Amino acid sequence: MKCQECQNEMVKFKKGYVQGWLCQNCGWNILTSDIDEPNKYNICIKDVSDDNIDVSVIKTIAQIANVNYLIAKKILTEGNYYIQNLNDTEIEKLKKANIPFEITEHI
Fold first, then answer.
1. Of the four listed, 16, 28, 41, 44, which is most buried by Cβ atoms within 10 Å?
2. Letter string b/e over residues 59-89, b meaning 16 or more CB atoms within 10 A of that residue's CB
3. Cβ-proximal residues to 42 (8 Å cutoff; 6+ apart), any chain
4. Hey, which residues does 42 pair with through a beta bridge?
5. Is the pTM of this model over 0.70?
6. Could you report the per-residue pLDDT of 23-82, keeping only the tens digit for each?
7. Checking phi first, is residue 27 left (phi over 0); if not, alpha (psi -120 to 50) or beta?
8. What crossing angle do the helices spanning 55-65 and 88-96 adopt, rounded to 10°?
């Protein structure tokens, strides 16, 4: 790919969540976010006291773990339930719902 400013060859690069093309001669670049490889996490849900379990918390676990509401409530009350391949959005949902969890592995 040729630079639009100086016509030198551009170099493709990727750093963190950013990727694109960079002209090493003049610094002109084209950037985009890297959405092809989002963060993935494996987590362990910790047990939650019955006082802190309401319908919205059960619904959050049911959606994230892809289980029905009865199983979601069991996950919350018994704890030590592992869920794999969660993305950043799902992690934020757990935090927002105040569901205790531990990241066991960042994939």
1. 41
2. ebbbebbebeeeebbebbeeeebebeebeee
3. 82, 83, 84, 85, 86, 103, 104, 105, 107
4. 105
5. no
6. 999 999 998 876 555 678 999 999 888 777 899 999 999 999 999 999 999 999 999 999
7. left
8. 160
